[in-house]
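README: folding subset

This subset contains proteins for which both the sequence and a predicted C-alpha cell string are available. Records are stored as plain text. Below is the entry for DUF3267 domain-containing protein (204 residues), shown exactly as it appears on disk.
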Amino acid sequence: MKASDKHINKKSVQRKALISYGRGPEGEEIYIEKNEFNRITPILWGFIFPVIAFVLFYAIYDMDTIKTSLKDRECFMNPFSIIFVMGLGSILAIFVNWFVQLIMFLLLNSWNYKYLCIRYNKKSTSIRLDYKIPMKLWKFRAVYITAHILSAYLPLVIGFIMKDMAISLASAFAAAFFFDETYILWRLRRYSRKALCSYKSDEE
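--- output ---
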C-alpha cells in the first residue's frame, strides 16, 4: 500500500490470519498480510464438507434416492469413485474458480491485465491469482463471492435439484479448497465497502 507503516493500525491479529486496518492518504485501508491456513486445514475440510453435503442430501431426500443416484453414476460402483469426485471437485475449485476470478478482476478494473499476478505462499504451498494494486473492498468481495458461487455453491444446488450425489459431493469438496478465502471474506464483513483492500503472500 502507499500508506506508510505508521498509518496502519494492526487492529486484528490472529494465528490464522493477519489483517491490518487504518487510515492512509487515500482513506481507509485494509492489508491482508496472510490469508492462508496451514496444509492440514484444507484436507480436514475436504472430508467434512462432503459429509455435510451427504447429510443434507439424506435429510432432503431419503436413502433410496441416494442409492438410485449412486447406481446411475457407474463411477460409484467401482474403486475409482472417490478419485472421480475429488477430480471433479478439483476442476471446479481450481480451474473454474480461477477463470471466474480472472474475468471478475479484469471486468472490475477496466480490463487492465498489467496488474494480474500469481502469488505463492511457501508455508501452505498454495498458489493464488491476485491483482497487485489495492481494490475497493466491494470489488474484492465481488470477485471472490462470484467465483465461489459459480465454482461450488451453484453446482451444489444443481446437484441437489438433479438428485445427483456426484455433483453435490464434488461441489462440497471444491468449497473446501477455498475455505480460507471464505474465512477472510467473513473477517472483512465489518469494514466499509469503500475501503482499499489488498493482500500479499510470500512470493509472486
